[in-house]
Amino acid sequence: SLATLLITSQILNQVMEAFLPYWLQRRRNKKVHKRMWRIMGDKELPLLGQVQLETEMNTYLGTFDDYLEQFLLFGYVSLFSCVYPLAAVLVVLNNITEVYSDAFKMCHVFKRPFSEPAANIGVWQLAFETMSIIAVVTNCALIGLSPQMKAYFPESETQLILIVVAIEHVLLAFKFILAFVIPDVPKHIQVKLAKLEFDSLEALKKRKILEAAES
Questions:
Q1: Is the pLDDT of residue 173 over 60?
Q2: Does the entry feature the keyword Nucleotide-binding, yes or no (predicted)?
C-alpha cells in the first residue's frame, strides 16, 4: 500500500506540476501568437511577442508547495522506513527528476520570480525536526509490533514493550547528541564568512582613511 501510494503520488505530482501546466501554456502561447499576427500582420516583432507571451504566463506563488512536497516525501521515508526501505531510493530518484522539472517549470511555465532573501528555511526547520522525532517513535513501535519480534517474547509482552521504549529513548538521545555536535554551518563556510567580514571591514577602514586624507 505504501509503495503504491508513494509511486502514484510522485507520478501525479510530476504531471500536475510540470507537464500539464506546460501543455496549457503552449495552448495560451498559440492563442497569443494568433492575436499578435492579426494585430501586427506581416511585421516581425520578436521582442514584443516574447513580452506578450511572458505576460500571459502564470505567477509563481512561492516555495510553500515545494516545501510541502518535500515534507510529505520525508514523512514517507522516515515514518515507515522499516516497513518499506525502498521508499528512500524512490524519493531520491523523484528529487533528481524534480530538480529538472522545477527548472523547466520556472523557465517555460511561470513568469520570472523575484528572489526573496532568507536566513534559513523558517518554520519548516521545526516541522522537519518534529517529523524526525516522531519517525523514531513510529519505527520502534512498528518493529515492536512485528510478528518476528513478538516471537522472541511469546510470554512477556511487557518485557518487549520496555525493551522497545528503551531502544527508542537511546535513539532519541543519540539523535539530539548528533544535532548538538554537528554544526549548522560547516567549518569552511564559517571561515569564508569570517574572511569576507574581515575584508569588508578593511575596505571600510581604507575608505575612511582616504576620505579623511582628501578632506
A1: yes
A2: no
Residue 140 class from Cβ within 10 Å (0-12 exposed, 13-18 middle, 19+ buried)? buried
d(CA 149, CA 157): 10
Which amino acid, 50? Q
Which residue type is seen at 12?
L
Average pLDDT over residues 32-43: 59
Residue 56 DSSP class:
T
Q: Check residue 8 and report its DSSP letter.
A: H
Provide the whole-model pTM: 0.69
CA distances from 119 to 19, 53, 122 (A): 32, 34, 8
Determine the Cα–Cα distance for residues 160 and 150; give it in Å rounded to an integer: 8
77 — pLDDT class (breaks 50, 70, 90): confident
Q: What is the DSSP letter of 164?
A: H
Q: What is the mean pLDDT of residues 45-65?
A: 73
